[in-house]
Amino acid sequence: MGEAVGVGLIGLGVVGSGVVRALAERGEYFARQVGAPIVVRRAAVRDPAKPRNAPIDPALITADVDSLLADPAIQVVIEVMGGEEPAHRYVRQALEAGKHVVTANKELMAKRGPELLALARERGCYLLFEASVGGGIPLIAPLRRDLLANRIASVRAIINGTTNYILTRMAQEGADYAEALAEAQRLGYAEPDPTNDVEGYDAAYKLAVLATLAFRTRVAPEQIRTEGITRLSARDFLYAAELGYVIKLVAVAERRDRGLLARVAPVLLHRDEPLAKVDGVYNAVQIVGDLTGMVLFEGRGAGAEPTASAVIADLLEIAEAVVHRVPNRAAWSPEEELPILGPEEIENRYYIRVTVADRPGVLARLAKCLGDNDVSIAAVNQKEANEDQQTAELVIMTHRARESAVLKALAEIAELPVVSEVSTFLRVEE
Asked: Does the annotation mark 111 as catalytic?
């Protein structure tokens, strides 16, 4: 048995406490796997006096992060505090000091990942981040190792459990958005301020991490076109089901001839698609490689235990490398610059729901706006009219068309005096 591998934690919340608990309960087993004991030397927190649900000696808890980072007995730093700053500064300090790092921080890796991975490569340190995307679902390790021989064609993912739960309730029970959100908050699946989840920002951070690894290029969150779920109505789920589709918030990164499509948005998926069957708080990621074809990863994408599992897996990999003096063999480096495609370069089929005046000639005026912009209608369904308001809903499915052309046509349609509202615009993901 080798010398103990010292660990310092930055953050001792739900995930950090789960890591400490796992090390306490399974320490002997882990030691046999890596060839040495793994020992928590210190844990840095904002308030050391706060009661902790973790089996850790209170004397090891400190508010002084700098002392933890300077401790020569600590070889591995685990960052589970979240957010970009000061986590970025602490991880940089750790790497510059020659310490290996495990992080569960999606925002940090989405915004600063390439910079920190380059620093880790320069210093010969490991920087592992399996828990940053997908909780306990193995995603990062397969991309940096098992799928490395592949030229990745696409990544499509449901990677936010909060929104997937809300959309599942709306689809299966006919709940409206506000009702489904309130239920998610009551069950602890959604934060009191759900903006990051329901506006798609959380999924965009995760997609930035996955796309950067999969395509070995720099994909920043701000480059990803991001749309949320707040404008969806229970009627959209009913109409989609009638057409053979379900609605999901899907993160997509796909290699095209002229660059990379990168988008987070609610879309229509055919009911037979694998991702269409992922419900509740579950996550799934579908990766297509030129050698493997399609592979699917599915599981619980959040929660203390799944996330702690991923953190521990990274820690064990590093601890084994420390014991056996194995240098970092899998540091990321960019291979190519892929431009992110704009709406003028992307084609899709589209679902459009419009509220219009219930009188003759209205459809012809909408069709003219679409046709003038080279958007062809595949099918139109008129839903039951509202006699009191003298309006009707039209559900339009288009043939493939340039997204920029569809957006221009919708802007023109919204200005027509016979149109009350362009209620919903969704892509059909194929």
From this structure: no
Contacts of 360 (CB under 8 A, 6+ apart): none
pLDDT at 372: 97
Please give the pLDDT value at position 304: 80
Residues 6 or more apart from 210 whose CB is under 8 A from it? Answer: 133, 139, 143, 155, 157, 159, 251, 253, 285
Does residue 6 register a pLDDT over 60? yes
Measured CA distances, 171 to 113, 226, 239, 290, 395 (Å): 36, 22, 10, 34, 17
> Which CATH number does 145-300 carry?
3.30.360.10
Q: Measure the CA–CA gap between 424 and 430, rounded to whole angstroms.
A: 19
Query: Per mean pLDDT, which range of 101-115, 130-144, 177-191, 329-343 is the poorest?
Result: 329-343
Spell out where 210-313 has E strands: 225-226, 245-256, 259-270, 282-289, 293-300
Which one of 99, 106, 111, 206 is the catalytic residue?
206
State how far the Cα of 321 lies from the Cα of 73, in Å rounded to an integer: 16
Nearest-angstrom CA–CA distance, 385 and 356 = 10
Q: For residues 249 and 164, is the Cβ–Cβ distance under 8 A?
A: yes
Percent of the chain surpassing pLDDT 90: 85
The 3 state secondary structure assigned to 353-377 is EEEEECCCCHHHHHHHHHHHCCCCE
Q: Tens digit of pLDDT for each residue in 380-400?
A: 998 776 666 788 899 999 999
- Every domain of the chain and the residues it spans: 5-135+304-323, 145-300, 343-429
Which residues are 424's β-sheet partners? 353
Residue 250's SS3 state is: strand
Question: Would you state the structure tokens that stand for residue 349, as one six-digit string?
Answer: 């089929």
Once rounded to an integer, what is the mean pLDDT over residues 217-237?
96
For range 254-260, the mean pLDDT:
93
Domain 5-135+304-323 -> CATH class: alpha beta
Average pLDDT value for residue range 213-241 = 95
pLDDT score, position 83: 92
Architecture per CATH, domain 343-429, reads as 2-Layer Sandwich (3.30)
What's the pLDDT at 331?
Answer: 62
Predicted pLDDT of residue 388? 65
- Cα–Cα distance for residue pair 280/184, rounded to 1 Å: 10
Q: Which residue, among 336, 334, 332, has the nearest Cα to 120 in the 3D structure?
A: 332
Check: CB of residue 77 under 8 Å from CB of residue 44: no
- Mean of pLDDT over the chain: 94
**C-alpha–C-alpha distance, residues 233 and 216, integer Å:** 38
